[in-house]
Amino acid sequence: MSWQSGGPHSSGTDASCNTRGCHLNNPHGAGASQYKIFAAKLIGNMPNLADSGAKADLSVAAAVSNPTSSGVTANLLNGFEEDGTTPLDNGTRQAVVVGYTCNSWGCHEQTMLPVINKGYAEDRLTKYPESFGTEVLKTGHITASAEATSAHASYNPIYGCTSCHDQTDDATRSGFTFPHSQTAVGASNLGAGRAWLWMGIASNAAGSDLTAMSDPNMKSFDGACLKCHRSSDGAAGVGASH
After folding, report:
1. What is the pTM of this model?
2. Three-state secondary structure readout of the chain
3. Is 132's pLDDT higher than 80?
4. pLDDT tens column, 23-79
């Protein structure tokens, strides 16, 4: 990892990973989630809302209690498809672990980050950065692994969070700068520096004009969606045929 621009929460120190509370500060997993896909990443499981740190089990509780609508089951959280034997694909694993860790109370609780079944919604706060206030049901873009289908104007498959947060860094084990707020130190598809939201925009699925987001306003640019939802030749998809 590289922490030149501040680590996950702009503290400038490696310790922010632990003091902010995503990962445990011990190598043996004491205090980790009861679910294997979280525990494997040493994701914390602080039991009370007032505690500082990731609250994996609390964060995922609503989804676990509604498995039919959420698509989140005990098998999934322990690393398997519903048959209990087929290993969970990495994109869905990433979406659940990163999404519900970041959705922990006191962190990114205004957005619905992990969506395994299309349209699934949970209560989220209406405004950022409030920790208390009005909650409404919110859903989000599906984040589990999914094939591209032109019927839904989708021309690139989903492989988890990094399908959108797609800044690469060939000096990292994952190949991406997300989710650890890294600044690319190796070769990157978006050039030197850290892209806003670790994301690029493009006019179509070919991505030949992929450009780094350089300021917060660019997250609303069409290219954030068209890089998946417009065909490679630009002739079909959202805004063209859909």
Report:
1. 0.86
2. CCCCCCCCCCCCCCCHHHHCCCECCCCCCCCECCCHHHHCCCEEECCCCCCCCCEHHHHHHHHHHCHHHHCCCHHHHCCECCCCCCECCHHHHHHHHHHHHHCCCCCCCCCCCCCCCCCCCEEEECCCCCCCCCEEEECCCCCCCECCCHHHCCCCCECCHHHCCCCECCCCCCCECCCCCCCECCCCCCCCECCHHHCEECCCCCCCCCEECCCHHHHHCCHHHHHHHECCCCCCECCCCC
3. no
4. 877 778 788 899 999 999 988 888 777 776 778 899 999 999 999 999 999 999 999
Cβ 77 vs Cβ 37: under 8 Å = yes
